[in-house]
Design a protein that fits this description.
Strand content: under 5%
Distance between the termini: 38 Å
Number of domains: 2
Number of helices: 7
Radius of gyration: 15 Å
Helix content: 55-70%
InterPro entries: EF-hand-dom_pair, S-100_dom, S100_Ca-bd_sub
GO molecular function: transition metal ion binding
Order of helices and strands: HHEHHHEHH
Oligomer: single chain
Shape: flat
Largest sheet: 2 strands, antiparallel
Protein name: SNTAN protein
Structural class: mainly alpha
Length: about 110
């Protein structure tokens, strides 16, 4: 497996890309590096990817009803697969409810 940073560097359009463009490209690369040939993840793979690659955002969220709803959604109907669009929506929901988001906001307020 080629490191994400090396994969990012190989995308010519991102040579002068913004931080935001590189961030989204990183998400896409992480997703597609784990996806099946159809570009999808099983529900279990989605859950595992979130727990390993998005840990700092979901840490401490386990008791929140919305988090439990999202995770139980992944546990149900395991034959269903997650496409990139659904994966991104899940990331956005988890980010918005994350305690880490408040910490990030506070960093910007201390400048």
């Amino acid at each position: 497996s080629i490191p994400i940073a090396k994969q990012l560097a190989s995308i010519k359009a991102l040579g002068q890309g913004s931080d935001l463009e590189k961030a989204f490209a990183t998400v896409a690369l992480v997703y597609y590096n784990n996806a099946d040939p159809e570009g999808k993840l099983s529900r279990a793979e989605t859950k595992s990817l979130l727990q390993t690659q998005f840990w700092h955002f979901i840490q401490g969220q386990e008791n929140k009803p919305k988090y439990q709803e999202i995770i139980s959604d992944l546990d149900e109907e395991p034959e269903n697969k997650t496409d990139f669009e659904d994966f991104m929506m899940t990331l956005v929901m988890l980010t918005l409810m994350s305690d880490l988001l408040q910490e990030i906001k506070n960093v910007n307020n201390t400048k």
